[in-house]
Amino acid sequence: MRKEILDALRTKFPGVSEAILGRIADKLSKTATTAEQVATAVEGVTIQQVIDSYGDSRATEAQQTAVSN
């Protein structure tokens, strides 16, 4: 289901990084198991959630860089 979710997210949010959408798809794929659930889950994703996911990924990356330095 992850691929279907990712495809739907790409359609809904064109131009957004694949890595960010992939993180959201990973989370949604844990609960959405049918095509109907995929459509409902993706429909519920807001641009704010995409922005938050990006912020989380940047914070994690910064923390890992700080620890390695």
Determine the number of helices (DSSP H or I, runs of at least 4 residues).
Answer: 4
Main beta sheet strand tally, sense and closure:
none
Task: Tell me the span between the first and last alpha carbons.
Answer: 38 Å
- Strand proportion, as a percent range, falls in under 5%
Question: How would you explain this protein's 3D organization?
Answer:
With 69 residues, the protein is an all-alpha fold. The longest helix has 22 residues, at 47-68. It is built from four helices and no strands. The protein has helices at 2-12, 18-29, 35-43, 47-68.
Which descriptors apply to this entry?
69 residues, mainly alpha, 4 helices, 78% helix, 0% strand, elongated
Topology:
Elements: H1 2-12, H2 18-29, H3 35-43, H4 47-68
